[in-house]
Specification:
The protein is of the alpha/beta class. The protein has one domain: TIM Barrel, CATH 3.20.20.70. It is 33% helix and 29% strand. It contains ten helices and 14 strands. An eight-stranded parallel β-barrel has the order 1-4-5-6-7-10-11-12, surrounded by six helices. Strands 13-14 form a two-stranded antiparallel ribbon. A hairpin with a 5-residue loop joins strand 7 and strand 8. The termini are close together.
């Protein structure tokens, strides 16, 4: 019987795997090929690889790296970073990658999502939204490319993503990113109550209890970075992932 998916997220920066805290202070983790191989051995549910430099630099996806990673991955694979055209989407899928993750290009022009959905189908399309608490309450949208909070409401943006053709929506809490202090479940519930497509909760996971709480608030999957690359209070670098028995003890 299937249970809620648990997805390690690898951030690619300057060719390596890094982990940020609140989208800042990147810490080097290691070689992405090695990380993929280790997660293969741990039989992870899925993996998401996000190139955090590509959109910022205005560059295309690193197809050479995409091909190398895809050739090593034996789990469902999602890739995002620098994707701005249907040709790039098609090129990435040709490597055997199952899902495309779109973030900045959606904020720039939501119609791009509709074009992608028409071309590859909703099931292969994830729209990622970086969310940040507003000072006066509620949640806004953060653009990692400009480094600015946008004058957009999260619910308006996620509803637009669903209408445009997103098959899944990944919500990432900027405030919780890398903290391992727990997922923002108020945000998770707000979003899951507002859309009918699956929602992937990301940002702040540090324990199996945190994953369970996100599931209980409606998340169809939980993604995490720090939880699967650090270990212990000193945050020593160690690729890790719960075994199936541990996951099923907390997740349906």
């Amino acid at each position: 019987m299937r249970r809620t998916r648990v997805i390690p997220v690898l951030l690619i920066h300057e060719g390596g795997v890094y982990k940020t805290t609140k989208f800042a202070k990147p810490v080097y983790i290691g070689d992405p090929i090695n990380a993929i191989r280790l997660f293969n051995d741990m039989e992870v549910d899925e993996i998401a690889v996000l190139d955090v430099d590509a959109s910022k630099n205005g560059s295309s996806p690193d197809f050479g790296l995409v091909g190398e990673l895809a050739s090593e991955a034996f789990m469902p694979f999602a890739y995002g970073g620098g994707i701005t055209s249907i040709d790039q989407v098609q090129a990435i899928l040709q490597y055997g990658i199952e899902k495309i993750v779109i973030n900045h290009a959606f904020l720039d022009d939501y119609r791009f999502i509709s074009k992608c959905a028409d071309d590859i189908g909703r099931q292969s399309l994830v729209v990622s939204i970086d969310c940040k608490k507003k000072i006066m309450g509620g949640y806004g949208v953060f653009d990692h490319v400009s480094g600015k909070n946008l004058k957009m409401d999260v619910l308006e943006v996620i509803n637009c993503a669903e209408e445009a053709g997103a098959g899944e929506i990944l919500i990432n809490s900027v405030d919780r990113d890398g903290t391992m202090s727990g997922i923002d479940n108020d945000l998770v519930k707000l979003v899951t109550d507002s859309v009918s497509v699956p929602v992937i909760a990301c940002g702040g996971a540090g324990s199996l209890e945190h994953l369970q709480a996100a599931e209980q608030n409606g998340a169809s999957a939980i993604a995490a970075g720090s939880m699967f690359v650090f270990k212990g209070k000193q945050r020593g670098v160690l690729i890790n992932y719960p075994n199936e028995e541990q996951l099923r003890a907390f997740l349906r």
